[in-house]
Design brief:
alpha+beta, Deoxyribonuclease I, Chain A, 19 strands, 22% helix
Length: 337
């Protein structure tokens, strides 16, 4: 019988081939819609979401919410495990996310938990979950997105984390929840532009050191992909021109009349995951193909009017009326090869 001699070089090639065979990495983002705990924090305006409040936000409703948030995130990669990176907004604090990790399917893995501590008027913050088997935390900071010269208001800080992946890639991750349009789109726009400037300035610093830096900017921007804050200030589009510009596949989805939020009988994209061109066509490490940007629009996260056929997000509350739904936003996710 002939014997096959496996040389050290051949064995090394086989091992290298196996080492490069990796599952796609999923990055998800979700505006949870008022994910509060049930405890009174004297330093926060959380009175609306307490057991004795008009919302009747008790432990049962909190656990319902927790399980629904987990269900949405689990559905982004059904059958393939949970997302490796998860940005979350409208959370009350870090403790809420720690409960999410410990009391849902997230407990099957080891996740790191980060959260901002912002001066926001509604007492909500931004958070990030990262799979510790994939990422190591290098640094965590908060960027102040409140411009004191633009009136008497306070908004969420931007969460900024530097993470090193097990393959050696360094990810620079921004989780955003920019000021709302509650006071009117035109009047509130300068607040979102200011928030965009803070993120763009930090990206400029990163790209000055490394032109191919791998940056992920995700969030509920309260602006559409073609609004000034994203298109001009953040310099993100589906047709980036200059090397430092960012790639926004959600501009294409918005143009196709898809959406993450339903307002005035129209679906539009407010929630987006934007990447630097360091991910586009990368020759090594993780790369992003624009076709791998998605909106989770499954039946269970939608409410359908049987008479009109109109669909909208299946939310937890509308005013003080409790619907035991998910959120007034749909989640978004991308996969990195």
């Amino acid at each position: 019988m002939n014997k096959i001699l496996l040389t050290p070089l051949f064995l090394f090639g086989m091992m290298a081939g196996f080492a490069q065979t990796k599952n796609p990495l999923t990055v998800a983002f979700y505006n949870c819609e008022n994910f509060f705990d049930t405890k009174d924090d004297p330093n926060k305006k959380d009175d609306e979401f307490l057991p004795e409040s008009s919302m009747k936000w008790d432990e049962i409703r909190f656990m319902n919410k927790l399980q629904k948030v987990a269900q949405v995130l689990d559905s982004t990669v059904a059958g393939e495990g949970l997302p490796a990176l998860v940005g979350l907004v409208e959370i009350e604090n870090k403790e809420v996310l720690e409960e999410l990790v410990s009391k849902s399917q997230f407990k099957t893995k080891s996740y790191g938990v980060l959260a901002t501590d912002s001066p926001d008027e509604r007492s909500i913050d931004c958070g990030l979950l990262y799979d510790k088997s994939v990422f190591t935390l290098v640094d965590f900071k908060e960027l102040n997105a409140t411009n004191p010269s633009l009136g008497d208001y306070k908004t969420r800080n931007v969460l900024f984390a530097t993470l090193k992946a097990s393959n050696g890639d360094v990810f620079y991750v921004f989780v955003n929840h920019w000021p709302s349009r509650r006071s009117g789109e035109t009047e509130s726009e300068p607040r979102r532009i200011f928030a965009a400037e803070q993120v763009r300035n930090k990206i400029n610093e990163l790209q000055k050191k490394d032109a191919k830096a791998k940056v992920i900017v995700m969030g509920d921007f309260n602006d559409h992909p073609t609004d000034k804050s994203i298109l001009n200030t953040l310099r993100a589009s589906d047709k980036p021109k200059d090397n430092g510009d960012l790639y926004n596949a959600y501009q294409t989805l918005d143009a196709a009349k898809q959406g993450t939020h339903y307002y005035d009988k129209e679906w539009r994209v407010l929630d987006q995951i934007i990447v630097s061109q360091g991910f586009i066509g990368a020759k090594k490490g993780y790369k992003f193909d624009p076709k791998n940007a998605h909106i989770l629009k499954k039946d269970f996260v939608l409410f359908k009017n049987d008479k009109t056929g109109e669909e909208k997000p299946n939310r937890t509350y509308s005013g003080e009326k409790y619907y035991n739904g998910y959120s007034d936003h749909l989640s978004v996710y991308i996969t990195l090869d």
